[in-house]
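Hi V.,

You were right to ask for the full record rather than a summary. Here it is.
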Amino acid sequence: MKCFDLKDEIDEVIREILEYKWLESEKAGTDIGMSRAAREWISRYYDDWFKYNCGRFMKDHRAG
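Predicted structure:
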């Protein structure tokens, strides 16, 4: 059973990366760029994000 509709997952990941890009750019005092933000966010946070959101989705799916 898949945890997400792929489009929903991609939309959420992009939102997370954009937020990460904004925060890290503020810290750096310059725009770090989308490529760097995506690489860093995926390598640092994607696995934990997916585990959390997959669990959340499964609870919502069972309840609904």
